[in-house]
Write a structure and sequence with these properties.
mainly alpha; two-stranded antiparallel ribbon; two-stranded parallel sheet; 18 helices; 6 strands; 61% helix; binds arginine
Length: 459
């Protein structure tokens, strides 16, 4: 049997393998709601413009809504012979309302239809990400406020650098996620133009109103070039690029949770809800969720690369290659959404071990810079000289196996005779973090103010 949608010029139906390689229904059925919304907007517009009869529009819209309900309820049987979601829905409409269904595809093609459906879908996903990411930001800002003064070691090169606060560290991720959200918002704004009515590639001779369908579907305006309309997939690429960067941020945080939750670090406790046990080692509590989040950029960036390679070198306008845009994108979208959800749960549940954090904050000569700054401030030493004096003191302390504040004043004066006991005030991690009140610095007062500011924005 030839295809009932396009089989007019064919004598035989497709080979089994042809059907298999050609069909997209197994994955594009995910677009059913968008496909139906697009068709309702299109049919309504055709009626308003006098291109098809209002009575046909009524039947079409009623039929499409019923099909949507059937699909939602799992009462719909998809057919691979009908290739994709567009033809599955149209064929079902024919079964339901008869010949009027054949008028729906006037002044439209599957090329502008699929571009429209996919844009609507991707747009919904971006809105979902935005919602989810703001939830994650809220969880982090709440934790940050609760632990605004918990000092911990700040690292560079994963070597102890200077004391920071736990809250400050968490707020760093709140900032990253804010940029992730703004990248999605940028992409959303750029992509929010309706391709519907571009038809196969050249537009149509029917007097359609593209502004009307654009408005009905929540687009800002119709796209301006019919060839570009059906050939553009950069809206997916931008989404995947933004998703890759966001996944990279989550991955960095996940890696920190993995490190922090080891017995060796012991900085945080992860909840039972987001960890697993070992089948052989009874003592284990594994941070599997964090590890899986750490891994997600692989498949998300993979989706981006895969689609970029599908698109590169494709001549205008539509080519069937472009059907390969969906599976990786769906997979990446699902992966990111799940990663955000798991990260939000983990972040809300985790508890810092503040005594351990404070202890670690004081080790590794983390207040050496504070000592050097004291020499600059109190003795008016040039910073380079102060750096050298402090380095000598660190070496002395290291040799004796003690902390900086465990050196005596005499020890210090042997290196720099003008030193006074006042210096000991700046050598504790709490004093160090507390002194960093510069804009964006780690002082608890700053952290509290920033956390509150975020919570207000996110409320
Ligand atoms: N299933 C197709 C896709 O996902 C729909 C567009 C088909 N267009 C065509 N001219 N065969 O791209």
């Amino acid at each position: 049997m030839t295809n009932k949608m396009w089989g007019g010029r064919f004598n035989t139906g497709p080979d089994e393998i042809m059907e298999k390689i050609n069909a997209s229904i197994s994955f594009d059925q995910r677009l059913f709601a968008q496909d139906i919304a697009g068709s309702i907007a299109h049919a309504t517009m055709l009626g308003e413009c006098g291109i098809i009869a209002k009575s046909d529009v009524r039947d079409i819209v009623r039929g499409l809504k019923a099909i949507g309900k059937d699909i939602e309820a799992g009462r719909f049987t998809f057919s691979a012979a009908l290739e994709d979601i567009h033809m599955n829905v149209e064929a079902a409409l024919k079964d339901r309302i008869g010949d009027a269904a054949g008028r729906l595809h006037t002044a439209r093609s599957r090329n502008d239809q699929v571009a429209t459906d996919f844009k609507l879908y991707v747009r919904d996903c971006m809105d979902m990400f935005d919602e989810q990411l703001s939830g994650l930001q809220r969880a982090l800002a709440e934790k940050a406020l609760a632990h605004a003064d918990a000092v911990m070691p700040g690292f560079t090169h994963l070597q102890t650098a200077q004391p920071v606060t736990f809250g400050h560290h968490l707020l760093a991720y709140v900032e990253m996620i804010a940029r992730d959200r703004s990248r999605f918002a940028d992409a959303r704004r750029r992509m929010n133009e309706s391709p519907l009515g571009a038809a196969a590639l050249a537009g149509t001779s029917f007097p359609i109103d593209r502004a009307m369908t654009a408005k009905a579907l929540g687009f800002d305006r119709p796209t301006r070039n019919s060839l570009d309309s059906v050939a553009d997939r950069d809206f997916v690429l931008e989404t995947l690029a933004a998703a890759s960067i966001c996944a990279m941020h989550l991955s960095r945080f996940a890696e920190e949770l993995v490190i922090w939750s080891t017995p060796q670090f012991g900085f945080i406790r992860l909840s039972d809800r987001f960890t697993t046990g070992s089948s052989i080692m009874p003592q284990k509590k594994n941070p599997d969720a964090a590890e899986l989040i750490r891994a997600k950029p692989g498949r998300i960036l993979g989706a981006f690369t895969s689609l970029l390679l599908v698109m590169k070198g494709l001549p205008l306008a539509y080519s069937k290659d472009m059907q390969e845009d969906k599976e990786p994108a769906f997979d990446a979208i699902d992966a990111l959404s799940l990663a955000i959800a798991a990260m939000t749960g983990m972040a809300s549940d985790m508890e810092p071990v503040t005594a351990r954090l404070a202890d670690a904050a004081g080790s590794g000569y983390s207040t050496a810079t504070d000592l050097a700054d004291w020499l600059v401030r109190v003795l008016a030493m040039p910073f380079r000289d102060a750096h050298h004096v402090t380095g000598t003191l660190v070496a002395m302390a290291e040799k004796r196996g003690v902390a900086l504040d465990e050196l005596s004043l005499q020890d210090m004066q042997a290196v720099e005779q003008r030193m006074t006991s006042d210096v000991f005030k700046v050598l504790t991690p709490g004093a160090s973090a507390g002194s960093r009140k510069s804009f964006g610095g780690t002082a608890p007062a700053n952290v509290r103010r920033e956390a509150k500011r975020w919570l207000k924005i996110l409320a």
